Amino acid sequence: ETGVTQTPRHLVMGMTNKKSLKCEQHLGHNAMYWYKQSAKKPLELMFVYSLEERVENNSVPSRFSPECPNSSHLFLHLHTLQPEDSALYLCASSRATGRYEQYFGPGTRLTVT
Amino acid sequence: DQQVKQNSPSLSVQEGRISILNCDYTNSMFDYFLWYKKYPAEGPTFLISISSIKDKNEDGRFTVFLNKSAKHLSLHIVPSQPGDSAVYFCAARSNYGGSQGNLIFGKGTKLSVKP
Predict the structure, then answer these.
(1) Would you call A42 and B43 a contact, using CB atoms and an 8 Å cutoff?
(2) How many CB atoms lie within 10 A of CB A53?
(3) Rounded to an integer, what distance in angstroms lies between the CA atom of residue A9 and that of residue A23?
């Protein structure tokens, strides 16, 4: 497996469910990111991890909880989501934060019913 | 308020002709700009970038132009090919404060290249 992978690719969940999104990067990078892309809106940065330490949380509601157990894996734990949280969730990685290109995974299409 | 704007949601071009995708920004602290391309069911892929100290960067069929005084950049694709049909995102990076290195994206422009 190469690049940045994300599972699952599609997820439908009810508002009372708990689920997790997984991201794995095979590029030897040290920084990982979660983005949200809603319909007709720009990509919005949610969280940034550098060397497994969260360095940025962009005012994201607490129903989204990230976890970075090592520099290759990133999770986004979801609980009691709202229908407006339905979106494409993209994971990205880069060599480090700062002036480095980010490489994106294919995304998880989340639908909250 | 959007800091990076792509005012054309879509663009249609004939194969072999030039495609010009535009992007405007408002924050003069942005010092690095990137273009990403996104096919359906895939994540964005990095295409080309430009530093604010330059006004042009070329890579094969792709050229990015930066006009700092107008806070405007554009991506030129010559000649356009059907495989270039995708959504193109402009992104800008700030060089200050706690957001250093974070990307601010535009909404994207969907390019369709007709054979």
Answers:
(1) no
(2) 8
(3) 11
B100: phi then psi, degrees, rounded to nearest 5: -60, 125
Contact A107 B108 (CB under 8 A): no
Nearest residue on chain A to B48, judged by CA atoms?
A101
**CB < 8 Å to B42, chain A:** 106-107
Q: Do B100 and A104 touch (CB under 8 A)?
A: no
Per-residue pLDDT reduced to its tens digit, A70-95: 999 999 999 999 999 999 999 999 98
Amino acid at B64: V
Residues of B in Cβ contact (< 8 Å) with A92: 43
Task: Give the start-end residues of each E strand in A8-113.
Answer: 10-13, 18-25, 31-37, 44-50, 53-57, 64-70, 73-79, 87-94, 103-104, 108-112
Interface mutation vs chain A, best among B3, B5, B105, most A CBs within 10 Å? B105
Q: Is A40 left (phi over 0), alpha (psi -120 to 50) or beta?
A: left
**Given the DSSP bridges, would you call strands B19-25 and B45-51 parallel, antiparallel or unpaired?**
unpaired
Q: Are B13 and B86 in contact (CB under 8 A)?
A: no
CA distance A99 to B53: 14
pLDDT tens, B8-38? 999 999 999 999 999 999 988 888 999 999 9
